[in-house]
Specification:
Order of helices and strands: HEEEEEEEEEEEEEEEEEEEEEEEEEEEHH
Strand order of the largest sheet: 3-5-7-9-11-13-15-17-18-19-20-22-24-26
Structural class: mainly beta
Largest sheet: 14 strands, parallel
Oligomer: single chain
Helix content: under 10%
Strand content: 15-25%
Number of strands: 27
Length: 446
């Protein structure tokens, strides 16, 4: 009995030493001042836990780990190569830390990974080709780092990727590999804000499950491939800020689920295709800062869910469609710096949610709807035929220019009704007190 009591006492002391003086060698591993059982620990979930310092290489001893989630901490240093010993791991999430260095090639050993999240760090170097060994991945998120080099061709091996491939906000160069077309289960492809060059590979059309495609802010060239029309599940297509040329492909009209389309800031030419009016789910359409020609298609009236329409900085001409007020959800329409002419119909003011109508630097003729806060410069040279061929300054058409005409223009300026073009005495495309002065000078010179 005494012997058993001694054994119990010794075990109690030993247990106390394990807790108070360190971890049990061979049985436990110490991570961030805590002891974890090597055999029993399967989940290590310490996200948003104010962890600091480096990831200890001893973490590689927890070979039964299935989930390692350390995101949203203040971890620094490199990812230890010992992490490659965690061959049972299915989720590795280290996003939003301050990790530096390269992704260790040993990551190729983690063949059971389904989610790899390393975004929001300061990781650098090239994306290792070994990443192509992780064929069970459904999510690969490396965005917001400092990765350089080209997208590895081996990325095309990751055919189980479904929830996302995010390589955006890095410093990647080179072409988008055609192997990307192997990722037929992918729903999100984010490559924006890099330095990618070359053309969009036609194989992009294989990604029929894609819902989000963001390639904006790169240096991509060539035409937008017609195969883009195969992406019938797309909800958002963002290609702005590149160097795309050629016409907008008519196949874009097949993207019936599209709600966000941004092709701005390219070198696109030709006319806006009528097929764009088939995108009746659109809420956002930006074609600005291109070299588009021709009329705004009348069929645009069918985009009844549209909230933002940006067509500025092009070479569009012709009339603004008279039934633009069909776009009952429109908040902003921006048309400045084009060659649009004719009348802006007052029914545009009937759109319930309209806040911004931006029309300066066109050739629109007055009168202008009262809901347009700022008309800006308009080339009125094609509007002059609206004025009767009468005596200069004879605004009330009584056959003589006198003080009554001054009263007429003053009343016009002070009223809520837009003044006729003929009241623009000094031909500066604005009707204001300067025109009153010009009219007075005409009277004084008679």
């Amino acid at each position: 009995m005494i012997y058993k009591q001694k054994i119990i006492t010794l075990m109690s002391i030993f247990s106390f030493m394990s807790i108070g003086w360190g971890c049990i060698d061979g049985l436990e591993v110490e991570l961030w001042s805590e002891c974890y059982r090597i055999e029993q620990t399967t989940n290590l979930i310490l996200w948003d836990n104010q962890l600091t310092g480096e990831i200890p290489p001893e973490i590689g001893q927890l070979t039964n780990l299935i989930i390692l989630d350390l995101h949203d901490n203040e971890l620094i240093g490199e990812i230890p190569p010992e992490i490659g010993q965690l061959t049972n791991l299915t989720i590795l999430d280290l996003h939003n830390n301050e990790l530096t260095g390269e992704i260790p090639s040993e990551i190729a050993n983690m063949i059971n990974l389904t989610i790899l999240g390393l975004s929001g760090n300061q990781l650098s170097g090239e994306i290792p080709s070994e990443i192509g060994e992780l064929t069970n991945l459904t999510v690969l998120d490396l965005h917001d780092n400092e990765f350089t080099g080209e997208i590895p061709l081996e990325i095309g091996n990751l055919t189980n990727l479904s929830s996302g491939l995010s390589l955006n906000n890095n410093q990647l160069i080179g072409d988008i590999p055609e192997e990307i077309g192997n990722l037929t289960n992918l729903t999100r492809l984010e490559l924006n804000t890099n330095q990618l060059t070359g053309e969009i590979p036609s194989e992009i059309g294989n990604l029929a499950n894609l819902q989000l495609l963001t390639l904006w802010s790169n240096q991509l060239t060539g035409e937008i491939p017609s195969e883009i029309g195969n992406l019938i599940n797309l909800v958002a297509l963002e290609l702005s800020g590149n160097q795309f040329t050629g016409e907008i492909p008519i196949e874009i009209g097949s993207l019936m689920n599209l709600s966000y389309l941004d092709l701005s800031g390219n070198q696109l030419t030709g006319e806006i295709p009528n097929e764009i009016s088939q995108l009746t789910s659109l809420t956002f359409l930006s074609l600005n800062n291109n070299q588009l020609l021709g009329n705004i298609p009348n069929s645009i009236k069918y985009l009844v869910n549209l909230e933002y329409l940006n067509l500025y900085n092009n070479f569009l001409d012709g009339f603004l469609p008279s039934d633009i007020d069909n776009l009952i959800n429109l908040n902003t329409i921006s048309l400045y710096n084009n060659q649009l002419d004719g009348e802006v119909y007052p029914t545009i003011c009937d759109i319930p949610n309209i806040e911004y109508i931006i029309i300066e630097n066109n050739q629109f003729c007055p009168p202008y709807p009262e809901c347009i806060a700022y008309v800006g410069y308009q080339d009125l040279s094609n509007c002059e035929e609206q004025c009767p061929d009468t005596i200069e300054g004879d605004l009330n058409n009584d056959g003589i220019t006198n003080i009554l005409d001054v009263v007429t223009i003053v009343n016009c300026i002070l009223s809520d009704i837009s003044c006729d073009i003929c009241f623009d005495i000094n031909n500066d495309s604005e009707i204001n007190v300067v025109d009153i002065i010009s009219l007075v000078n005409i009277i004084l010179d008679i």
